[in-house]
From TrEMBL:
UniProt cross-references to InterPro entries, sorted A to Z: 6-hairpin_glycosidase_sf, 6hp_glycosidase-like_sf, Ssp411, Ssp411-like_TRX, Thioredoxin-like_sf
Top-level taxon of origin: Bacteria
Species for this entry: Planctopirus ephydatiae
A Pfam family this chain is assigned to: Thioredox_DsbH
Database matches in Gene3D superfamilies: 1.50.10.10, Glutaredoxin
Residue span(s) of domain Spermatogenesis-associated protein 20-like TRX: 5-164
Record protein name field: Spermatogenesis-associated protein 20-like TRX domain-containing protein
A Gene Ontology biological process term: carbohydrate metabolic process
Length: 706
């Protein structure tokens, strides 16, 4: 039977990128599995994503290679999967690859029986043996030989590996007591594993670990520990100075290939920038460092400029990723020669004072710092360089800002990397949360409005679909029902939007999502499954407690339900969140670095935490022309680091809504502003007057354990 490549009709950009390969790729569907069973062939499953550099390399070397394609088409049924569309498949088969090889990554290459059971796998395979890896053609020949001549061995290995994967994904850690000692241990761990020289954690390749940096600040606030705070400061400063940070266009690349944050893997992911935006907002509130505020603003500007889904099909929402490659070269769009910089800034390759200042600030040399090119980075902070030059930081930053703008305009003439315009609900939830909070902390109404638009697009679609919340939307079309992290991250986003604009409809529209989450995902033994009970049945149904580059689904759900329950007085949400934390407690005890978002929820659960409802005086109420303009109290509240405070500006429109229980009808503005400080729905005596309110908020910022 002559198989044909069936990917052209798929909506995934990643699958479309392989639609012209001579490999007879199949999407993951019933037809592909029917073929595998009828032909009695093993399945070659290849999983990757559109912005993956090594996925492009393996495509060019192997999947465009006629001889390798011939072997695949003759001996296998080849299935291509976009990991961003099917994280459930990625999770299961990545567990198999790690069990076989003790490492994982993308592209993921797995060989399965026609029943979907894995028996051999790896990641990138070169076409011929090199890098200590077997050649892909040799692998295919060996797998074919084993399948034809040692079938019993293969099926037995597949059976054992499938059981191992099932046990791993359904493993339940022995729970422990939810107490402050878990947080104390986490703080000690973060200090111990921090790279005290270069910032961040671990060795090359080096990932941002935004959730761990945020946890470090939380724990520094709870325990008043300088060492823990320094963990966050070292990481945030080093990354913002490094080449992983796009100093011209804003935003961060996915990770650094070295220990010093200089050479990134140049793709930009939506989730990284959402999580890092939150981390730099925290850093600015905690340290009041202008460098962190500017870094946060640069992420916002990048996302609003380059990552909003285009076209009229979706009037809001954010793209998944930007590629590392352009014109066939990794990083080509982002790197510079010294002569090009001098020509742009001074009109001459000889340069002038402007170009020499920029070169000194951003580490530019004639020989370059990466493969003969320059990756822009800050060897010193702007403040430190200003001290050397005898310039105020503000004046130096203004000057450099003008020079960066010139180079940015020039860079726009280059061929830009590709962009995956798929909307992934979980990642959009992370970005909506970050932008909603930016609306408050940075007083950026454009950021808040972008977050509101994205949330409405997703909610409107969820309310029109029989399965509710989708996982992804491509070219205006929903794809697959949501997974647990979609629910968790998007529910967190709806809470953040309510905190940002006070619109109670965010809460009312969250409620049916919570009901569906409980009905379809809840595990009676505690926590939630990663997939709905209505989803496709796979070889295992996993429970997701471990953070990866994004928060675990259970951790996101716990954070969302804790805050939803506290705002609305909904006891069920509080109880479910407690269940999640109890189920995750064993893993929290075992691994700080895998549970930062759960530990943040635990910090909230243990308290002390507060709901602060601010009711402005009649004379300070906002106008229709500027409905969200901040007054002095709100500015102070949003500039303070208050990780365990829900600060809301009370509005009359709350009456009769889920938000009304917070203040029990005490929303009418009086002649002086009032602050209600509440714990678990019980409010203390009101604080009256602007000065007294600001003093009370500053007191809460000193410690949440009063």
């Amino acid at each position: 039977m002559n198989l044909v490549n069936r990917l052209a009709a798929e909506t995934s950009l990643y699958l479309n990128q392989h639609a012209q390969n001579p490999v007879a790729w199949q999407p993951w569907d019933d037809e592909a599995w029917r073929l595998a069973r009828e032909l009695d062939r093993p399945v070659f499953l290849s999983i990757g994503y559109s912005a993956c550099h090594w996925c492009h390399v393996m495509e060019h070397e192997s999947f465009e290679n006629p001889r390798i394609a011939e072997l695949l088409n003759q001996w296998f049924v080849s299935i291509k999967v976009d990991r961003e569309e099917r994280p459930d498949l990625d999770q299961i088969y990545m567990a198999a690859v790690i069990a076989m090889t003790q490492q994982g990554g993308w592209p993921m290459s797995v060989f399965l029986t026609p029943q979907g059971h894995p028996f051999y796998g790896g990641t990138y395979f070169p076409p011929t043996s090199r890098y200590g890896r077997p050649g892909f053609a040799e692998v295919l020949a060996a797998i074919h030989d084993a399948w034809e001549n040692r079938r019993e061995v293969v099926t037995e290995q597949a059976s054992q590996l499938t059981m191992s994967v099932h046990d791993q994904l359904s493993e339940r850690q022995e729970p422990t007591t939810l107490q402050e000692s878990l947080l104390e241990k986490a703080g000690r761990t973060l200090v111990r594993v921090c790279d005290r020289v270069n910032g961040g954690f671990g060795h090359a390749p080096k990932f941002p670990h935004a959730m761990d940096l945020r946890l470090a600040l939380r724990l520094a606030h709870r325990f008043d520990t300088t060492e823990t705070a320094e963990v966050a400061e070292l990481g945030l400063t080093a990354m913002a100075k490094g080449g992983i940070h796009d100093h011209l266009g804003g935003g961060f690349a996915r990770y650094s290939t070295d220990e010093v944050w200089l050479v990134p893997h140049f793709e930009k992911m939506l989730y990284d920038n959402a999580l890092l935006l939150q981390a730099y907002l925290d850093g600015w509130q905690f340290y009041k460092t202008d460098f962190y505020r500017r870094t946060a603003q640069s992420i916002v500007h990048y996302v609003l400029r380059e990552m909003q889904v285009p076209g009229a099909e979706l009037p809001g929402g954010f793209c998944a990723a930007q590629d590392a490659d352009s014109e066939g070269e990794e990083g080509r769009f982002f790197v510079w020669s010294q002569s090009e910089i001098r020509t742009v800034l001074s009109g001459s390759e000889l340069g002038n004072d402007d170009s020499r200042l920029f070169e000194r600030a951003y580490g530019v040399t004639s020989g370059g710092n990466w493969e003969g090119h320059n990756i822009l980075n800050l060897p010193k902070t702007i403040a430190a360089l200003g001290r050397e030059l005898g310039m105020a930081e503000t004046a130096l930053e203004q000057k450099l800002s003008l020079l960066r703008a010139k180079l940015f305009e020039h860079r726009k003439s280059r061929i830009a990397p590709g962009r995956d315009e798929k909307l992934i609900v979980a990642w959009n939830g992370l970005m909506i949360s970050a932008l909603a909070r930016s609306g408050l902390v940075l007083d950026d109404q454009e950021a808040l409005q972008a977050a509101q638009r994205a949330a409405r697009v997703i909610l409107d679609m969820a309310e029109s679909l029989p399965y509710g919340l989708p996982h992804s939307i491509q070219k205006g079309q929903p794809k697959h029902g949501a997974y647990l992290d979609d629910y968790g991250c998007f529910l967190e986003a709806l809470i953040e939007l309510f905190l940002a604009d006070g619109d109670p409809s965010w809460l009312s529209r969250a409620l049916p999502l919570i009901d569906r989450l409980v009905n379809e995902f809840h595990d009676e033994q505690g926590g939630f499954y990663f997939t709905s009970n209505k989803a496709e049945k796979l070889i295992s149904r996993s429970r997701d407690f471990q953070d990866n580059v994004t928060p675990s689904g259970n951790a996101a759900v716990a954070n969302a339900l804790l805050k939803f329950g506290r705002i609305t007085g909904d006891a069920r949400s509080q109880e479910l969140a407690h269940e999640v934390l109890q189920a995750a407690s064993g893993l929290m005890q075992q691994s700080t670095m895998a549970t930062a978002h759960s530990l943040a929820a635990l910090d909230w659960w243990l308290g002390a935490n507060y709901e602060c409802v601010y009711v402005p005086a009649e004379t300070t109420s906002t106008t229709d022309a500027e409905p969200l303009k901040q007054n002095a109290v709100e500015r102070v509240a949003h500039e303070l680091y208050l990780p365990n405070v829900l600060f809301l500006t009370g509005r009359a429109q709350w009456e009769g809504t889920l938000a009304a229980g917070l203040v029990n009808g005490r929303l009418a503005p009086a002649s002086e502003p009032v602050l209600y400080v509440c714990q678990k729905g019980a409010c203390q005596l009101p604080v009256v007057g602007e000065a007294a309110i600001i003093a009370r908020l500053k007191g809460l910022a000193q410690s949440t354990d009063e």
